C-alpha cells in the first residue's frame, strides 16, 4: 500500500498497478485532467507536476514529469497539480494570474506544465533571475513559440514581493499530515498481477534482489518508464530504490566523493559542480530540471546507454563503482562495467551501490563537451570528456572518455597513448587527433552521421587545447546564452 497527499487530501492505494504512471493515475483514477500528455517520454513537460517533501521545517517542491513517474514514487509525498493552485476563494494563484496578464497562454496545451514549473520556481527561488527562469522552464516546450511572454510572466513574479498562498498558509498542516505516513519501513504495491517492492535500506535491497534477481530496479524511472509508455511493455516485478536512505547520501573527504547510486542528479549538483566546475556546466544541460530531479547518477550508468552523459565523464575522472550482491561487495573501474550494447558486468542479483569519484590533483586539467541539436533538454550526439595531467609542459596523464561514438561509452585508448609522455603542443595534439579517429567506428542515426561524429570528436580535443592555452577567443556556445 502507498500513502500520499493529493494536495491536502490523504490518499491510500493498495490494489494499484505499479506500472501506472502518475499522469494516468491523475487522469483516469481521480479525474484531474489539467495535467496533459504530450510526448509520453519526458521531453515536452506538458505533464509537469510538483512533488512536495519535508526538508527540515519546510516543504521542498520539485517538478517531475508525470508521464515518467510511477505511482510507487508518491509514497510519503505531496502531489500537487495545476488544479490545486487556485485559492480556496477561487482566485487564481499568482503564477496563473501572471500567465494571464502577460498573455503567456496561446493554444493552452503546454500551459499547465509551464504553470507548475513556475510555481515550483516561485516557492524555491522567490527572487529568481533570468538564468534561474530559463533553467526552470528548460524542460517545458511551447508549440506556439510563445516563450517571451511566458518568461516575462516568470520575471514579473520574481520581481514582486512574495505573496502568501494556500501552500504557505497550510504548510504546518501539510507537514503534520506527511509526518503521519510511515516512510521508514518497507512497503509493497500490488495490482494487475504486478508488484513493486520499496525497501528503505541497502541491506533490504540486497536481500530482495537476491530473492528476486529477475526484478527490474527502479530509481528515477526516467529511462525505465519508457518501456511502458513507448514500447507498451509490462514490468511484472520492480524494486524501487527511491526510499533507500543510505543510497541517497553523498560523502566527501579530501580525496574523493562517494555518491549513493540512488541520489538524484539535482541533489548531486552542488558537490559535483564545486569540485569539477566543467561537470557543473554539463549538468545544466543534462536533460531538463524535471529529469534531473528524478534521475540518478546510478541509473544513468546502470541503463548502459551508449549516449548517457555521465559514463564518459566518469571514465575520464577515473571513477569506480561499488557493486553489491547480498553481503558481497566488489569495486570495479567504471570502464570495465560496460561489456557491450546494453550489456554490463553486473551479475544476477547485483546492483550499483555507490559511485566513487577521485578529486582532481595538481596539474590536472578537466573539460567536458556535449554536442546536441538543442542546447537544453536534449540527448548527446557526442559527449567528450578530457582529463589530462600536464607537468613542465609534458603530458604525464591522459584519460579521455566518449559517449555516442560506439555501442558503449568508451575511452579513446589510441589518443591517450599518442598524448602520454609527449610535449603539450600543437604538433602533439594534431597527432592525437589523428589517432582518435581510429579509436571509434561510430554509426549514423537521426542525431548525427558517422562522419560528423568522427570529425567533431577529434575537433573537441583541439577545442580543449585552445581553452587550456587560455587564448582570448570564446569557444563555448553556452557563453552566449
Describe the structure.
The protein has helices at residues 22-29, 94-101, 111-124, 130-136, 147-159, 166-169, 171-179, 202-211, 226-229, 265-275, 277-284, 289-294, 297-302, 310-316, 413-419, 426-437, 450-468; strands at 2-6, 9-13, 48-55, 58-65, 78-80, 187-191, 194-198, 216-218, 237-240, 250-252, 256-260, 320-325, 328-333, 338-340, 343-344, 351-358, 364-371, 382-391, 394-403, 410-411. It has 481 residues and is α+β, with helices and mostly antiparallel strands. It has four domains: 2-83 and 171-240, Roll (Ubiquitin-like (UB roll)), CATH 3.10.20; 94-164, DNA polymerase, domain 1; 245-358, Uridine Diphospho-n-acetylenolpyruvylglucosamine Reductase, domain 3, CATH 3.30.465; 364-480, 2-Layer Sandwich (Enolase-like, domain 1). Strands 2-1-5-3-4 form a five-stranded mixed sheet. Strands 10-11-16-12-13 form a five-stranded antiparallel sheet. A four-stranded mixed sheet has the order 6-7-9-8, with helices on one face. Helix 2 packs across helix 5 and helix 16 (426-437) runs antiparallel to helix 17. The longest helix is centred in the last third of the chain and has 19 residues, at 450-468. It is globular, with a radius of gyration of 23 Å. The termini are far apart.
Amino acid at each position: 500500500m502507498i500513502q500520499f497527499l493529493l494536495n491536502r487530501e490523504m490518499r491510500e492505494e493498495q490494489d494499484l498497478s505499479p506500472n501506472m504512471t502518475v499522469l494516468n493515475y491523475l487522469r483516469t483514477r481521480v479525474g484531474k485532467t489539467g495535467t496533459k500528455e504530450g510526448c509520453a517520454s519526458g521531453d515536452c513537460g506538458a505533464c509537469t507536476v510538483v512533488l512536495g517533501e519535508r526538508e527540515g521545517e519546510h516543504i521542498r517542491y520539485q517538478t517531475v514529469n508525470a508521464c515518467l513517474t510511477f505511482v510507487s514514487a508518491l509514497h510519503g509525498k505531496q502531489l500537487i497539480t495545476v488544479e490545486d493552485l487556485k485559492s480556496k476563494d477561487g482566485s487564481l494563484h499568482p503564477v496563473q494570474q501572471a500567465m494571464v496578464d502577460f498573455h503567456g497562454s496561446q493554444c493552452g496545451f503546454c500551459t499547465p506544465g509551464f504553470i507548475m514549473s513556475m510555481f515550483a520556481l516561485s516557492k524555491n527561488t522567490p527572487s529568481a533571475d533570468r538564468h534561474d527562469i530559463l533553467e526552470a522552464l528548460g524542460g517545458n516546450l511551447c508549440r506556439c513559440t510563445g516563450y517571451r511572454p511566458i518568461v516575462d510572466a516568470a520575471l514579473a513574479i520574481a520581481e514582486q514581493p512574495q505573496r502568501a498562498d494556500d501552500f504557505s498558509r497550510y504548510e504546518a498542516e501539510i507537514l503534520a499530515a506527511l509526518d503521519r505516513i510511515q516512510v521508514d519501513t518497507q512497503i509493497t504495491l500490488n495490482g494487475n498481477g504486478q508488484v513493486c517492492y520499496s525497501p528503505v535500506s541497502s541491506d533490504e535491497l540486497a536481500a530482495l534482489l537476491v530473492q528476486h534477481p529477475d526484478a527490474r530496479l527502479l530509481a528515477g524511472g526516467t529511462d525505465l518508464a519508457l518501456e511502458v509508455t513507448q514500447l507498451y511493455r509490462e514490468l511484472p516485478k520492480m524494486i524501487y530504490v527511491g526510499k533507500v536512505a543510505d543510497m541517497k547520501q553523498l560523502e566527501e573527504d579530501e580525496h574523493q566523493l562517494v555518491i549513493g547510486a540512488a541520489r538524484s542528479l539535482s541533489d548531486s549538483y552542488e558537490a559535483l559542480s564545486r569540485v569539477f566546475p566543467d561537470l557543473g556546466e554539463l549538468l545544466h544541460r543534462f536533460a531538463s530540471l524535471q529529469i534531473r530531479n528524478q534521475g540518478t547518477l546510478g541509473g544513468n550508468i546502470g541503463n548502459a546507454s551508449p549516449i548517457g552523459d555521465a559514463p564518459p565523464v566518469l571514465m575520464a575522472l577515473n571513477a569506480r563503482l561499488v557493486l553489491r550482491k547480498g553481503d558481497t561487495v566488489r569495486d570495479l573501474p567504471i570502464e570495465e562495467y560496460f561489456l557491450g550494447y546494453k550489456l554490463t558486468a553486473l551479475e544476477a542479483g547485483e546492483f550499483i551501490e555507490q559511485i566513487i569519484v577521485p578529486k582532481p590533483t595538481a596539474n590536472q586539467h578537466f573539460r567536458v563537451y556535449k554536442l546536441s541539436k538543442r542546447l537544453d533538454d536534449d540527448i548527446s550526439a557526442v559527449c567528450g570528456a578530457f582529463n589530462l595531467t600536464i607537468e613542465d609542459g609534458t603530458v604525464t596523464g591522459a584519460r579521455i572518455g566518449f559517449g555516442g561514438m560506439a555501442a558503449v561509452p568508451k575511452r579513446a585508448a589510441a589518443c591517450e597513448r599518442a598524448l602520454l609522455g609527449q610535449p603539450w603542443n600543437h604538433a602533439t595534439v594534431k597527432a592525437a587527433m589523428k589517432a582518435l579517429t581510429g579509436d571509434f567506428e561510430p554509426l549514423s542515426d537521426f542525431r548525427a552521421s558517422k562522419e560528423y561524429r568522427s570529425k567533431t570528436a577529434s575537433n573537441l580535443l583541439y577545442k580543449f587545447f585552445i581553452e587550456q592555452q587560455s587564448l582570448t577567443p570564446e569557444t563555448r556556445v553556452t557563453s552566449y546564452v
